[in-house]
Every structure is written in C-alpha cells, then in structure tokens.
Amino acid sequence: MKKEFRLLKGNEAVAEAAIRAGADAYFGYPITPQSEVLEYLMLEKPEERTGMVVLQAESELAAINMVFGAAGAGRRVITSSSSPGISLFQEGISYIASAELPCVIVNVVRGGPGLGTIQPSQADYFQATKGGGHGDYHMLVLAPAFVQEMADFVPLGFKLAFKYRTPVMILTDGLIGQMMEKVELFEQIPRATEFDQDWVATGKTPDRERNIITSLDLQADQMEKRNHRLQAKYKKMQEEEVRFEEIACEDAEYLMVAYGSSARICQKTVQLARDRGIKAGLLRPITLYPFPSNYLQAKAETVKGILSVEMNAGQMIEDVRLAVNGKIPVEHYGRFGGMVHSPNEVMEAFEEKIVKP
Amino acid sequence: MSIHVKSMDVKDIIKEENLVYRKSPLMTDNVLSYCPGCGHGTVHNIIAEVIEELGIQSNTIGVAPVGCSVLAYEFIHIDWLQAAHGRAPAVATGLKRVMPDKYIFTYQGDGDLAAIGTNETIHVCNRGEHITIIFINNGIYGMTGGQMAPTTLEGMVSSTSPYGRDVSTMGNPIKITELVAQLPGTYYVTRQAVHKPGNVRKTKKAIRKAFENQELKKGVSFVEVVSNCNSGWKMTPVKANKWMEENMFVFYPLGDIKVDGELVK
Fold it and tell me: Per-residue pLDDT averaged across A115-144, rounded?
C-alpha cells in the first residue's frame, strides 16, 4: 500500500483522523483557534465517506451533552473546542466520567483566564489533568507535539477511551492547531457496525437486561462504590498507560520537562545547552494524566536539577515536584498569556535557575 | 317489609369497558418516589403503556434529566440516559443522530425545560430533531423543595417567592409551549393534564401520537402535561387539583396548539 502524505494544519489533521478513525459522530461549536476542525468536517462530508454524523451545536453545553448521548449508545464520538469552550464542557465531562462513557475531547488551548487571547498557551494543564469539573475524576490526557501526533492520537484516544470507558482529552494548543506539517495518514478504520458492549443504551432487547447510563447514586455507599471503581481505573492507567519521550536523557545531568509545543522549543534548547558543554536532557510527557512520575522519581537519583518549561505560570511543575519529592531542585520557566518562549529564553532560564546554582 | 339489596361485587366493576388505568407491564415494581397525588406516576404509566402497545420497547431510549423525575429510569422498564439539568434535548439529539430509527424521548420538568435548559429546548425544536418531549409543568421546583419555577403563576407562593410571585421583580411565567409551537421544527405541540380519567385518556392519545410521529421524521412532538405538586404547593391532593383547574388551566389552557405541523390555536 502506497503511503499517503498530506500537508495539514493540526486542526485539519484531527478532523481527517476522526473520519479515518471510524468516528460515528462529531458535535462542536466554533471557537478560535480550533474552528478548522468543524469547518474541515463540514467541507469533507464525512456522512458520505463513512456515515459519520457532524453537527454544529448551539453551544458548548449542548455539544458536550450530544457527545454524552451518542457515547451512551456506544458510538465513537469526538468533539473539540478551545479553553473558554472547554470550561463550558466541564459539567458534561464530569457526568461523562461518572457515567463511564468513552469519548475523545480535543482542547486547542489559548491564553486565559477569561476570554483571554487567541494565541497558544498551556494554561489549561490543571483543568485537564486534575479533573476540571466537580467530583473526584480524571480524564486520560494525551499531549501531541507534532501535527502527526494530532492525527495519530485520535485513534489512540478512541482505543483508550473504550478500554477504560473514560473521556480522553487531546490537550494541544493554538500553535500546533494552526501549524502546518507533513502528515502520514493512516488507512481508513471501518466504523463499528455492531455494538456488542454490554452497557450501551440502544434499546432493551429481550436477550439482555436493560441499561441505564447514569451518574446518580442517591445512596452514599453506592456513590462511594462508583468512586472506588473510577479510582481503580485511574490506578490501572498509571500502571499501564504512561507514555513519554526521552531526548538526550541517558547521560543528562540537568533535565527539562516539557510537553507539546513547549517540548518542541526545548528540543532546540537541549542542542544549545549541549553546544555549551552542559549535559542537558528533555523529558517529554506524552500522557499528562497518567503522569510519568515513576520515571522522574528514578531520574532524581542521577540528575542535579529540573526545569519545568510550560507556557503557563507553573502548573505541571507541581507534578514534577511531587515525583521527585524534594530530592533535587525543580524550577519553572515559561511565557504565558498567549506568549511563546524562545529556545534562547529557555536556555537563559535553564542556566540561571538550574545549571548555575 | 324486607328490602332486597343486591350487593355489588368488585368483579362487577372491574370490566374491560370500565378500565381507565392499569399498571403497564413495562412499569417496574420499584416503589414510586413521587408524593401521593402527584401526576408523575400517571404520566409514567401512560408512557409505559404507549411503548408497550406500539411494541417498541427494544427501540426506545428515554432521557431523564435533573428534577423529581430524574429517577424515571427506576420505573419504566427500558434503556435510559440520565442527563444533566436542562441538557436532555442535547443528549436526545446525540442519541437520535447516531440512531435515527430509534424512538428517543425526553421527560422534563418546568425548571429543567423552561429555565436552565431553555437554550437546548428552543434549539432542539428549531432544528426539528425527530424526538418526543414530555414536559411536566407543575409551576414549581418539586425536588429541591418548592422554589419558584419559570412557570410559577403571578402571585403564586413558593419558598423563594414567599409573598407571591411579583412579576415586576421576578419576571413573568413563561408559556414555553406556545413559544416552541412557533418554531418550524415542531410538528405536534399539545397541552394536556392527568388529574381526571378523561384527561388521562386524552394525554395517552397525545403521547401515543407523539411517539408515532417519530416515524414520520418531521420534527419534534411536544406534549406538555399540566400537573399538580401538592407537597410543593402545600395543599392536599384534592385541593391541589381544584386549584390547578381554577388557576393553572386559566393561564395554561389545555388542548392542541399545533397538529401535523399546522398551528391550530
């Protein structure tokens, strides 16, 4: 089979990948910098290509609840938005997590808080990895750093969402969403035509018990049981789903930890540092939840300091610090509010905060 | 003088022609969580009967959002989704779009449908999703203990309008049903009640039509049922029904508003 390459924006890659991943439905609402997802899908007529449903909702509140409905029928459902819209999703995500429904949610993050800016940011790390809505829950969070990964993480997201019956977030930003890169597209995955999952609400047939998709347990002991079930799932994710990339980590004396766009920038900083004779390495977490804590805990035995480089005021640094548990200094650097740091700016901070002290 | 009185046996009353109401086999044996005298149980039974009579149990999915009826899934023996407050029409849209040949209905109260979920209600009706909406209007928030609802009448006392609803500061009761009837996406819009056998029959006819309409794929079928909330209204069930007739029906008159896509009122 001849490989298929396309030059695509990150947002377009998500949209094309959704069709090819055999998604049954996309529900979304326009917001910059991710509107290309919905635009691409509308232009592409996936209903004709695969039978995939695409609907522009009246709000993010409606969109996430359409996701809830279609996911409750056991379908592969995907939605996308950007920070302020993702805030509106939170109620629905909490219900989806509690009702244990699978879905993929793409957040093309922009600067905040409030209406913020339309420029790239990583300021939604807390919201994405710590739950975001009410109650004790997590999403499984994937952080692409390349347009290629924007495409590849869609089918991966569906796989994980169904494996754990959990919402999966692809946490990216306006930089990767808008940037064009060469993408190798995977072959069309057929849409599922049979729904053999035993939990779906597709109509009670005589051969099975009826299915109720709910997030409600009025009896507290039942709700505690549900919570235990969720926590067991998160523990399993921590054991089985941690993904990361090591860049020049093997002999590193000093480490940077960065994901997504910031990792792309830090990759250059590693080169700059190595040119100056500093043994620098970069850990790129690919799953932000579950976080590569064990890796960092082990690394704390051999490296002298870590710089957490994020396009926010310091959020992931809390997970890095928890992992190394005070063993070595961990500092933060990053531009935020829609500003993007340069490799040289990171280099300066790296020397000043980590290498020199 | 002896008077011969023929004693009446219960068997003389329980006859097919006298049957107004029976427990549908699609009603579960779970004890209803509704207050005695409340209309929810009657409407539940009607829906169960309609699903049973149409033979569509295996093709019907209900959506019950927050309110007294959030536990509807405990009582009607079909697949259900429990939705967030106000979001049932969006959840139903998601279900219907991926399963266009299934029967999808929402079961919503007035606070849910006409306050927090107004946006979803208007847009599902404007898009003309081929679903059924059952709307229970009792003019009060029942589950949370009797607060003012969007449909609470002017002057009506509730726990958050303890001196009566003052429309100059609290806004007016909303006739959402007349409002959605104006939208091109609604095909059938009607307002009924279940406090008397005659009304139960009419409501059943309306709900049956609302389900059958889904086969036509011509948009939303919307059935409002004006009901009482005797505990929220702080009245006996009998008094509540009388008050409902004298007050609620005046502002929310019963009858069809839109039939087969044409306004009739």
Answer: 97
Of A219, A238, A257, which marks where a domain is finished?
Answer: A238
Q: What is the pLDDT of residue B10?
A: 80
User: Which CATH number does the domain housing residue A79 bear?
Assistant: 3.40.50.970
- Clarify whether residues A82 and A160 are in a common domain: yes
Minimal C-alpha gap between A227 and chain B (Å): 18
Give the ranges where chain B is alpha helix by DSSP (H).
Answer: 10-13, 40-54, 88-98, 110-111, 118-127, 167-170, 176-181, 197-212, 230-233, 237-243, 249-251
Q: How far is CA B5 from CA A9, A47, B9, B11, B14, in A?
A: 91, 74, 12, 17, 20
Per residue in B201-249, pLDDT (tens digit) is 999 999 999 999 999 999 999 999 999 999 999 999 999 999 999 999 9
CB contact under 8 A, A214 and B73: yes
Residue A211 placed within a domain: no
Separation CA B225–CA B203 (nearest Å): 8
| Number of domains within chain B | 1
Residue B156 has pLDDT above 80, yes or no: yes
A86 within domain boundaries = yes
Task: Answer yes or no: is the ipTM higher than 0.90.
Answer: yes
Q: Percent of chain A having pLDDT more than 90? A: 97
Which of B69, B79, B211 to probe by mutation at the A interface, max A CB count within 10 Å? B79
Q: How far apart are CA B227 and CA B39, in angstroms?
A: 6
> In terms of domains, do A166 and A249 share one?
no
Distance from the Cα of A67 to chain B's closest Cα (Å) equals: 6
Q: Given an 8 Å threshold on Cβ–Cβ distance, is A202 in contact with B78?
A: no
Q: Please give the mean pLDDT across all residues of chain A.
A: 97
- Residue A208 lies inside a defined structural domain of this protein: no
